[in-house]
Write a structure and sequence with these properties.
single chain, binds zinc ion, two-stranded antiparallel ribbon, binds 5,6-dihydroxy-NADP, alpha/beta
């Protein structure tokens, strides 16, 4: 088992009407003036922003609003938010939305405490020493940003999408009301569940050491997502299914499902290039296509790990034919994502063979070479994985 440090400072308020406690909880933590950050329209249309504002007002916490975060959030709006936060003297940033809004809020929290351009952190990964405290009202279980140390931002001018992670970016408090997710479009529910499952795969595929405490936790989350995901798709307002998925999404990515293991993150790196190429591509949908391709490419490094995965998660009985057993596990993975309505090829996402070379330079810039852990990949390996995914 590898040595590790793990900090999980987030306080969770989980359940029906959780968002009505925003004001009292932030006031109790000393918040005086909050920047409320949200997305395109869903939180406005549902009345959530009004409810959050009312809760802040009732507790004597003043607020400044900044909406308009798009999926695959752009650094430009975060720059604007950081300037607004400085001008208005805000002392907390409250994200009301999903991974995109939360990540943009994290960038604002960094930028508000920094004299230079906040993109510096993403471009050069220079150390941040301070960030405003962050709170979250989560509306889509997916990215796990409600408790993670990461944030992923796009810079369309540079054709890049890349992450920055530090413990100071872990939200101090997250309000998680599963009822808020009843309104999600099916495609977003599916992409979100694919993303959280991918966060487990990234951590499971490591063949060093013996870490059953973490592996069993990880596998149990995979099995839970497999069982609950079809219920979410069939009954969008099934509270228990939504609640199990919402809590699972957090557990998949706060770090606990990988403690003591080397996470891989190659597939996430490959996917971020798809979303940088075309910001219309949803992160989870890109992962649904790329993860099976990555598996096909890297499994010879340790087929036994794949056979263990197939047996534990899909109940596959090993036949003794190693390649066939591995392919069964990979086919089950692809079929699971497809059963939710996710794509199975890059072509379905509008990405063609000639696009591969456009992604390689920024992949190299963002991930370096080699990248990945289960198998160390070169840019040539990356090309092959993209081709397998076509
Ligand atoms: O903008 P609005 O109108 O709110 O619509 C959003 C958006 O179109 C909609 N939505 C959210 N909640 C809703 C809702 N629609 C109806 N009802 C609701 N309750 O859903 C769409 C997608 O939202 P988004 O925030 O983009 O989704 P997600 O949470 O999947 O976040 C994806 C982003 O997170 C990054 C991804 O790369 C991507 O940019 N990631 C962040 C990570 C992290 N910070 O730790 C890790 C992940 O691996 C991931 O890379
Ligand atoms: Zn992800």
């Amino acid at each position: 088992m590898e040595d590790f440090e793990f900090e999980s400072p987030t306080h969770f308020v989980f359940g029906r009407h959780a968002e009505s406690k925003v004001g009292e909880q932030l006031a109790a933590r000393g918040a005086k003036r909050v920047l409320v950050h949200f997305g395109g329209k869903s939180a406005l249309e549902s009345g959530l922003i009004d409810r959050v504002s009312a809760s802040l007002d009732a507790s004597g916490v003043s607020s400044v609003m900044l909406g308009g975060v798009r999926p695959n959030p752009q650094i430009n709006l975060a720059r604007e938010g950081a300037a607004l936060a400085k001008r208005e003297g805000v002392d907390w940033v409250l994200a009301v939305g999903g991974g995109s809004v939360i990540d943009s809020a994290k960038a604002i929290a960094l930028g508000a405490c920094y004299d230079g351009d906040v993109w510096d952190f993403y471009a050069t990964k220079q150390d941040a020493t301070a960030a405003l405290p962050i709170a979250v009202v989560l509306t889509i279980p997916a990215a796990g940003s409600e408790a993670s140390m990461n944030s992923v931002l796009s810079n369309d001018d540079e054709g890049r999408k890349t992450g920055y992670g530090r413990d100071i970016l872990r939200p101090r408090i997250s309000f998680m009301n599963p009822e808020l997710t009843f309104t999600l479009p099916p495609y977003q529910s599916a992409a979100g569940m694919t993303d959280m499952y991918a966060h487990l795969l990234e951590r499971f595929f490591d063949d060093r050491g013996n870490v059953p405490v973490t592996d069993n936790l990880n596998l149990s989350l995979m099995k839970t997502i497999r069982a609950e995901a079809p219920r979410v798709m069939a009954e969008p307002d099934n509270y228990d299914a939504r609640a199990n998925i919402m809590w699972a999404g957090m557990l998949c990515h706060n770090g606990i499902a990988g403690a003591g293991r080397h996470a891989d993150w190659a597939t996430h790196g490959l996917e971020h290039e798809l979303s940088a190429l075309d910001p219309q591509i949803t992160h989870g949908a890109g992962l649904a296509v790329l993860f099976p391709a990555w598996m096909e490419y890297v499994y010879p490094n340790n087929p036994a790990r794949f056979i263990q995965y197939g047996a534990e998660v899909f109940g596959l009985t090993p036949t003794g034919d190693v390649n066939a057993d591995v392919y069964n596990a990979i086919d089950e993975t692809r079929a699971f994502f497809a059963s939710l309505g996710m794509p199975t090829s890059l072509e379905e996402l509008g990405v063609h063979e000639e696009d591969i070379e456009r992604m390689i330079p920024t992949l190299h810039e963002n991930k370096g070479e080699p990248f990945g852990s289960f198998m160390q990949l070169t840019m040539d390996d990356a090309r092959e994985i993209y081709k397998l995914a076509l």
